[in-house]
Amino acid sequence: MTNAVFEKFKSCAVEVLQVPAEKLVLEARFGDDLDADSLDLVELVMALEEVFDITVDESELEGIETVGQAYELIAAKI
């Protein structure tokens, strides 16, 4: 995991989810900790696809509950 990639991921997530950067840790759960609903996650994925120039299939998002899981999904595509 490179810090530069995580920083890009994090700044994108902070902007889209409107949460303080310090709350965006790998263990954070989107629903419980960040108060993000499914629409927020769709917006986040769309933003991440643009930032990293990747494509994420909707089916790949099933079971993604934490920032770490989402980050690993994105990082695997870069």
Describe this structure as you would to a colleague.
- Helix 1 crosses helix 2.
- Helices cover 50% and strands 0% of the residues.
- It is built from three helices and no strands.
- The chain has one domain: ACP-like (Non-ribosomal Peptide Synthetase Peptidyl Carrier Protein, Chain A), CATH 1.10.1200.
- The protein has 78 residues and is mainly α.
Distance between the termini: 11 Å
Tell me the series of helices and strands, N- to C-terminal. Answer: HHH
- What percent of the residues sit in helical stretches (DSSP H or I)? 40-55%
CATH architecture: Orthogonal Bundle
Short summary:
By secondary structure, the chain is mainly alpha-helical. It has helices at residues 3-17, 38-52, 67-75.
Strand and helix map with partners:
Layout: H1 3-17, H2 38-52, H3 67-75
Keywords:
78 residues, mainly alpha, Non-ribosomal Peptide Synthetase Peptidyl Carrier Protein, Chain A, globular
